[in-house]
Each structure stands twice: as C-alpha cells, then as structure tokens.
Write the structure tokens for this entry.
Amino acid sequence: MKIGVRRILLVIASGVLLLLVLEAGVYNWRLVLSMRYRNMEELSRQLSWRRDELLVTRAALLNPERLQSVGLELGLAPVPLHCFSVLQLRSDATGGDQFVCMEQ
C-alpha cells in the first residue's frame, strides 16, 4: 500500500510541476507578445505622424499660393532681377555655344 500511495503522490507532484512549468511558459509567451504589440503600436504611431507630415507637404506643393505664402513666411522670395549682373560672355570648350556668367 505504501508503494501505491508513493506512486500516486509522485504522479500528483509531477502533474503540479508540469502545470507550473506550463504556466511559466504561457506567461513568458504572453509577455513577449505584449512587447511585440507595444513595439508595433509605436511603429504605427510614428508612421501615422510621418504620413500626416507628408500630407501637409503634399498639400503645400499642390497649392502654389499656399507654397508662396509659406515661402514668404520663411523669408524666401524670388530674387529680383536688379540683383543680378552680367560679368562676361564665355564660350564652351568646343567653341560653339556661349553662356553668361551671373553673380548675385
């Protein structure tokens, strides 16, 4: 009878130990999955911010008036022609075309 009781206790202890190991494995697996989920959420947030930035840039480029107003706000404007002066005429190495050097 003692041998039978010992085997039953050994089977119960083995079962409890197996359940504890499985529980630890499931816990670690859930932890890994939650970390992956958090990383994917952060990546999604960054991509949506980048998308919004690109949409703003696209809207500015598609609307020339808006682009001009943004440029003026930044202090960018076309350079007036009186700021340029012709220095000299030069011909290219083949002797054909002539081009103008300009300075600002």
Q: What stands out?
A: The radius of gyration is 37 Å. Residues 2-78 form one domain. The chain has two helices and two strands. The mean pLDDT is 82.
